[in-house]
Amino acid sequence: MTTPAHSEESRSAVEIVAAEWSDVLSYGTDLINPAVPRAAYQHPSLRELWPMVSHGVLYLSRCTRYPWSRDIGTAFPQSGGGYRIRRESDKALLGVVDTLEEAYALIAASLPEGCGPAIDGTPDDLPSCAGLGREALPEDCGPAVEGTADDL
Q: Per UniProt, what is one Pfam family of this protein (predicted)?
């Protein structure tokens, strides 16, 4: 008998990402405006990344496991309309656009150099922060934790 954990381990990163996209694309308006993941999914390069939704916003990662990468742009809706595109890893404002289509076209055009399909792993498993010209730093790899190891 196959256990869920064994089944998860036997799936490839491509299969894991495809299954997550299927889930995200089926979300109702209680979680996200369904037009948001549909707009992102139109771009083959974004479709290869791990999708996740939080507070009505679609986040994309080069990794399938927490603490996901933070080097892919994110489209944040503005109260007056349009979208502000930010990349968390370097706090860059990539642009402000009017439509979802423009937002995800900008995100696709701003992917890190050498960005390919998501890996089944964490940012620690990525070779570098391609496009940022340096090796990955802890702040690139998830939420910052204040204090020292002794505080944990």
A: DUF6193
pTM: 0.79
Distance CA 147, CA 134 (A): 25
Order of strands across the sheet with 92-97? 74-77, 83-87, 92-97
- Contacts of 75-83 with CB under 8 Å at 24 or more apart are 75/36, 75/100, 75/103, 75/104, 75/107
Q: How confident is the prediction along the chain (152 residues), in pLDDT tens digits per residue?
A: 444 444 555 789 999 999 999 999 999 999 999 999 999 999 999 999 999 999 999 999 999 999 999 999 999 999 999 999 999 999 999 999 999 999 999 999 999 988 989 999 999 988 764 444 444 444 444 433 333 333 33
Domain map (residue ranges) of the chain:
11-127
Helices of type H across the chain? 4-10, 13-26, 35-41, 44-47, 100-109
